[in-house]
């Protein structure tokens, strides 16, 4: 890998007129298609004041272009996305997380699949920064959710080099590639929080990155746990899912109301994972012949001989089914099918 | 050298540059590839193997 000498970012003369400035960024493909906030020296310095890390420190090299994500470059993209200055530590931790080997950022960035990097914020910082884990947490209207997700996309594009149609080879992409960020609704979860499940203390703040292939609404008024498990599991099983042929890591965003139904049924989070994993096994005969052949190549070592009668689990084990409690009132949960060949990574925000 | 289908030539070139090998030879095969039958893939391999071998042998 070539290592360009690292210095502080260059100052670039840009037009004073706002309309011209916005076009200046679009023309260089430095934006995501939306207007950006000009990353002036003053704005970037203000953001850098929110970390003790040095501006020229390399946090990671971002695949597939392997541009160096220095603290300053992360800050520049955060300003462009509209982030408030104190959001910077979240993005530094997220950049560390998404460049961990098991996340397979190379695959996520260059694939034809519609994979977004979904950020989940846990711990006290979620409330401090106003990251929404409640009503409309995956939708519009919350500054932190909108701009943190957008900033990560700009980092992936501007530092990772994943320009759509060039190194980003997505067939369609998905709206979550503009921004995909939420908190966990820890206050309304009957279970241990995601970061606690993943080895952190409750009072630590973390960000988790997940390779998400989309969101699918699951609207059900099921009032007992068995019924709810059955219909969620049935939704998980579809023959064009990456998870079944490659043994993925699917996620369920459980609404507080659904979480309460499951909890009232005596189910821990681990129980829910195990029950969903068992109930979502899918007949391999539902797949197209060529996907069955790919599954035989990919999973025979794990499962033994695979025929059209084989019941395929969605992941290698129940622990690979992700559970997050988020959202507001309502009888909805969300199925998030995964890229397949990637594993979520959590890093502490410091 | 490496082998890419024609839809991914741009990615292959950009990736080679990013990894410090801008002159990396690319053997280009037809696209799409993943949806072809095994027999079709074998036929393609027969067509392409000479060029791949030539690039692999080149210094």
Number of strands of chain B: 2
Q: Which strand order do you get reading across the main beta sheet of chain B?
A: 1-2
Radius of gyration of chain B: 12 Å
- Largest interface (C-beta under 8 Å): A-B, 11 and 11 residues
Summarize model confidence as the mean pLDDT of chain B.
88
Mean pLDDT figure of chain A: 96
Shape of chain A: globular
Query: Domains counted in the coordinates of chain A: how many?
Result: 2
Structural class of chain A: alpha+beta
Strand content of chain A: 5-15%
| First and last CA, distance of chain B | 10 Å
Order of helices and strands of chain A: HHEEHHHEHHEHEEHHEHHEHEEEE
How many structural domains can be distinguished in the coordinates of chain B?
1
Tell me the helix content of chain B.
40-55%
Shape of chain B: flat
- Give the distance, in angstroms, between the N- and C-terminal Cα atoms of chain A: 29 Å
- The number of helical segments of chain B is 2
Description:
The complex is a heterodimer of chains A (350) and B (59). With 350 residues, chain A is an alpha+beta fold. In chain A, 36% of the residues lie in helices and 15% in strands. Chain A has a 4-stranded mixed β-sheet with strand order 4-3-5-12. In chain A, β1 and β2 (67-70) form a beta hairpin. Chain A is globular and about 65 Å long. The two termini of chain A are 29 Å apart. The model of chain A has no long low-confidence stretch (mean pLDDT 96). With 59 residues, chain B is an alpha+beta fold. Chain B has one domain (2-57). Helices cover 51% and strands 14% of the residues of chain B. Chain B has 2 helices and 2 strands. In chain B, β1, α1 (9-18) and β2 (26-29) form a beta-alpha-beta unit. Chain B is flat. The A-B interface holds A 1-2, 64-66, 110, 161, 166-167, 169, 290 and B 7-8, 10-11, 14-15, 18-20, 34-35.
Set out the fold topology.
The complex is a heterodimer of chains A (350) and B (59).
Chain A: H1 18-27, H2 41-48, E1 58-62, E2 67-70, H3 71-81, H4 88-98, H5 105-110, E3 116-122, H6 124-129, H7 143-159, E4 181-183, H8 194-197, E5 206-212, E6 216-219, H9 225-236, H10 242-246, E7 251-254, H11 256-264, H12 269-279, E8 282-283, H13 289-303, E9 311-312, E10 322-325, E11 332-336, E12 345-348
Parallel strand pairs in A: 3-4, 7-10
Antiparallel strand pairs in A: 1-2, 3-5, 5-12, 6-11, 7-11, 8-9
Chain B: E1 2-5, H1 9-18, E2 26-29, H2 38-57
Parallel strand pairs in B: 1-2
